[in-house]
Fold this sequence. Notes:
The chain is of the alpha+beta class and 684 residues long. The protein has four domains: 2-50 and 105-311, MFS general substrate transporter like domains (Growth Hormone, Chain: A), CATH 1.20.1250.20; 326-379, no CATH class; 381-432 and 440-540, no CATH class; 548-681, Beta Barrel (Lipocalin). The chain has 19 helices and 22 strands. The strands form four sheets. Strands 3, 4, 5, 6, 7, 8, 9, 10, 11 and 12 form a ten-stranded antiparallel sheet that branches. A hairpin with a 4-residue loop joins strand 4 and strand 5 (409-419). It starts with a helix and ends with a strand. Residues 305-352 form the F-box domain. One of its GO terms (cellular component) is membrane. This is F-box domain-containing protein. The chain crosses the membrane at residues 6-26, 33-57, 63-84, 117-138, 150-174, 186-203, 209-234, 246-264, 289-308. Keywords: Membrane, Transmembrane, Transmembrane helix.
Amino acid sequence: MFGQFICALAQTFILFIPTKFSFVWFSEKQRSLANAIAIGSNFFGILLGSILSPIIVPDTSKIPLLLYLSVIPALLAGILSLGIRSAEPPTQSCKAVVHIPQPFLLSLKRLYRSKSYVVLFIGCGIAIGCFNALSTLVEQMMCPFGYDNVTVGICLGFFIGAGSLGSLVFGYFADRTGKLEEISKILYTASSVAYILIVLFIINRVPRYFIYFAFAFVGFVSLPLSPISMDLCLECVYPIPEATAIGINVMASQIIGILMVVIFPKFGRPLNEYETAIETCSRDTKDKIVALNYSIPLYIMAFIMVLMDRLPYELLFSIATHLDSPKDLCSLSRVSSVFLSVSRDDRIWKRLCYRLYNVNPPLDELKQNFYNLFTKILAPYGRYLGYWKSNEMYYGGLIHVQLNISEETIIGEKLNVVNVSDGIAQMFFADEDDSDDDGDADEEANESFFKSMYQKTKLFTIDSTSNQILCHQCDTVHNELPWIKTFDSNQQYFGLSHEALSVNERSLLVSHDHNFMEGPEGRDIYFSRNCLDGSTVYHPLSIPRPSTTNADHPLSRFNGLWIGSYGGHGLELIHVELCHDFICPATVDGRSKDVEIISNALVGRKISGDPNVPHSQISFVATHPIEVVDQNSPTSYEGIGQIAHTGYVDAQFIRSKILPISNDVLQVTWYALHHTSFFKRCSF
């Protein structure tokens, strides 16, 4: 029993390591084939064992000999593994292979929050589970219909052998074409047909060569689903570690296979007189075995595979309406061909326009359907929507790029924060604390930052219909888009767009101050404005849109832009948002502590920045509510704040206290600095 346990434990590693191995060691054009060869080799070894075992063990007395012979290849593999000196190649196989360490529990939460992964988790689990159940119960399923052990063994040989061949063939085509989704659709559809054939052939006792063909067909199209589905899983959950994603997926297939093996016999029915006369289940055995007719389990297995490929439109639409991104939509379409028509439903694209870009225009302003709005305007230009920081200075040079629905244009405006004392008549903040009385002059002076305003200057306009850009500063129309680009033109669109990242991950795109760098990094989207005699480069602040699912949380009301006073550095802009699974720093006030993951934290991230703590860095975080004795007192929150010396040197987190005075005013106390800052909500 202990030996069986060790072997089973090793098998779990063998099942998911090939995908991680091929992802790290092979290029994109070799990865699918390498994964298919590795997984197919495992099943090919099972095939050899199934063929050689009856030859080596003609009777029970030879079982020890079989065990001794099995030690030889296992020992040889163990000796060869001692020569492995590195987990990664000296040179990365692909620029996209970047190890991003993440806590296991956080990775697990993100996996199950990815609806596309859950769909693949279920789909791949059922497909491979059916494969495992069929290979395990094949003798019990066939013997009631008169098929002897020799026929069953040959069927298993065709089943596994053709599956190994299919893995090589489809892995090769996947590498050459890169069309994983199309191949997976073909395999799911073909698997449905193959399982129907195998059920009909077994139950109707057709000639044996038809049975052999059916098993070969099932193996050829169902076994390749394992490596192809593993590759698809990595596509939809990157950058979550490969071992975690694949391990969970393998676990699903094993659990579903075990459930089928346990449950299917419950649906077996007693044999009738004819079946009792032809059954071979009790032949060549001394033990009395109760033979059952497995026709119902066979029909159930075929129905499951058909269901995976032919789901009702209403059910597919219901699933699609809960997807959060085009990538999730694409991943689901890989599971079912019917979803191709569902993916064009305009109600889905209306939700995506709002979910991803906060675009929810009135119908009278919309000149086209939401599918065209997304694909023709938001897909090419949506990545530029939001707030951007120039390389002009520490603070300043902030621009806001937004969509004009009625004119189908993208407008970029420069934002400057100025004081009332400057005498510029622009948009003032609505200050609820203002009154007609003069009040105390000192108090008015201390709260003068509440009377701030924005000055907006239009920089450029992009016409999405003609793809022309008007630069207002130099009054020049550009017929092409050479001055709006991504730093790495070879990078895929989904690798850089907002919809490829969850809400919490978008803010992590920019984790440095570009003023201290010679140029932008390859992962950063940027665009430059080349007109007159100069060139200005803008970098994304990656401000996430407020999540529509957080409306019930008490801290979600503080989502948005805020302006605050940091003393000598004047007025600064920060973006505040409720974030899930925030990882607290391990060191606060110079003291180390265990890493803590806060399920709901209010994170304030700098937009304009200053010479000490630059833009995009965390300013403060509210983590835990503080219990109050007086119920009439407002709820305050324990938290952390970030401080640093000039140049972002010796950056550290200190304890802080966040007190919401109202829905529009926040008070932040920095304990180590003995300083209190006030923040006022911004509204344009």
